[in-house]
Amino acid sequence: MYEIERTGIIRSERLSGEYYFSSLLAEAQRNGLISSKDIDKIEFDCFMLLGERTNRYTNGESSSVPVETAQGISNSILYTLGVALKSYPTPDDALNALLEAGVGPLYVKGRRLIDKKIQAAKRLYASMLKNMVVVDNLTYKSTLRDGIRGFFKIYDPEFSAQEICITADYPTFLPINDLAGIEYMHRYIKSLYYENKFCKLFPDSDIENLLYGYSEEYKHLVINIFGLVLTNALGRVMLGKNPLGLSISKDEAAHLEERLSRLTKEQIGEAVHQAFAGLCESLNIESEPLREYLENALPEITSIISIACEKRILTSVFIEFAYPKDAAEIAFDFGQKMNPIEYNQILTEINDCRYTSDKIAIIESSVRSLADLEDILLDASFTDAEAYEVFGILSVYEIAALAKKYAALSKDDAAAFDENEEKLRNRLNQYISLQSDEKRAGIERLYKKIKV
Fold first, then answer.
1. CB within 8 A of 139, min separation 6: which ones?
2. Is 330 helix (H, G, I), strand (E, B) or coil?
3. Which of 97, 110, 187, 340 would you call most buried, defined as having the most Cβ atoms within 10 angstroms of its Cβ?
4. How far apart are the C-alpha atoms of 161 and 114, rounded to whole Å?
5. Maximum distance among all Cα pairs of the chain, rounded to whole angstroms
6. CB under 8 Å to 440, separation ≥6 — which residues?
7. No. of H helices and E strands in the chain?
């Protein structure tokens, strides 16, 4: 049997994702589905809820707050109600729930849904971090590691549920519009998760060489890495080449320009979709959510290629690898150490924890320099497996710096280490040996250059 999709009078495409509650009421009024009396009651209930939330905000000490604060709490209430109303199958169902259940119960439901979204976003974020590309783009690293983590620390679902709290400087390939609060952040993390997952199909070193080909200043640019990788991978398939090679020479790009310039935009779109099918087959991409995300990116890539063909600049769209000039040394600063009292408190907390995940959580929230983390690795009662978990949250630069300081990859045992230092050295050596060929090669390359 076929499932019949339910529709209603209110058109969902006319509603705002960010201001769902207000737009639903406006559309209900426009369609004659709600009376003035109903509107008055809803507004009164919202006003009463604002009073209750304001009282909670001040811990019962005052019934008045600055206008800006009151407006923020009011927006938070409307956002939370919108989250609850979005959970119904159709806008008509959402309106009926509002009229029947009332503002108070819907607010409670919205808060519960927001808490669930926060936990879902945190789980997705943990998975996303494991798939980060090892490249030195500053915006990419600072946003994905520090920016998003900062959001979870300061996001206030009680009184500022609609706020994003941080500037998401690193752009996703597909823009995220008409969302706010945790809904925006969950979509943002989800997009980055799929973009990273695709990029990790390619060696990190190749992606870095692609980015250098795009610009020698790529480290300081605000660019989307995924878009560059996907575009070149599709171009390789169009050339009849293995997409894993990733690089496209100037001559190859000129050949594609000559070929594609004869086509209409619709025909270029067909060529891109055909290349996408070949890409999925070649890279064995079977995950439906990942395939869907990639497919949603194809219209934008088609547009980029079509415009470039019209202007005869396709050689600037498809990128040839470039290689950074080898620096003699890379200076690495371990950072400042915290005061001994604070350090000992953190060390005690870590040693008292039963679960590795709790130990990692303390490190991520409290340890701010590699100098302090080095001491933790020396002093804490970690098992080998737990030490490897700690290494797993470090960048390849940090691993290479620690390895260099303790001569972990050196066959020369001349350096004198005490028992704990020798243990850390052996653990680093073993951890590096267990990494993928690409990551191990990256660490070894940095190990030769880094100065600590």
1. 169, 170, 221, 222, 223
2. strand
3. 110
4. 8
5. 86
6. 432, 433
7. 20, 2
Residue 6: the pLDDT is: 58
Count of residues in the chain:
452
Distances in whole angstroms, Cα of residue 83 to Cα of each of 88, 153, 337, 378? 10, 21, 44, 47
For residue 23, which amino acid is it? S
DSSP string, 399-441: HHHHHHHTTTT-S---S---HHHHHHHHHHHHHHHTS-HHHHH
Distance CA 452, CA 199 (A): 31
Phi, psi of 331 (to 5 degrees): -75, 135
pTM exceeding 0.85: no
Cα 424 to chain centroid distance, Å, stands at 31
R_g of the chain, CA atoms, integer Å? 27
What phi and psi values does residue 34 have, to the nearest 5 degrees? -140, 140
Mapping DSSP to helix (H, G, I), strand (E, B) and coil, where does residue 450 land?
strand
- Tell me the per-residue pLDDT of 336-388, one tens digit each, with 9 for 90 and over: 888 999 999 999 999 999 899 889 889 887 887 889 999 999 999 999 999 99
Amino acid at 254: A
Residue 250 to residue 273: CA distance in whole angstroms: 23
What tokens appear for 148 in the block? 């998003």
Which value, to the nearest 10 degrees, does the dihedral of the CA atoms of residues 366, 369, 372, 375 take? 120
Q: How many other CB atoms are there within 10 angstroms of residue 338's CB atom?
A: 18
Q: Give the residue from 135, 165, 162 showing the smallest Cα distance to 226.
A: 135
What is the 8-class DSSP label of residue 12? G
Region of residue 222 (left: phi > 0; alpha: psi -120 to 50; beta: else): beta
Show the CA angle centred on residue 344, arms to residues 338 and 350, nearest 5°.
105
Q: Which stretches does DSSP call E strand in 75-141?
A: none
The torsion of the CA quartet 32, 33, 38, 40, rounded to 10 degrees, works out to: -40
CA atoms within 13 A on the CB side of 385: 3
Helix or strand (DSSP H, E) at 331: strand 330-331
> pLDDT higher for 332 or 59?
59
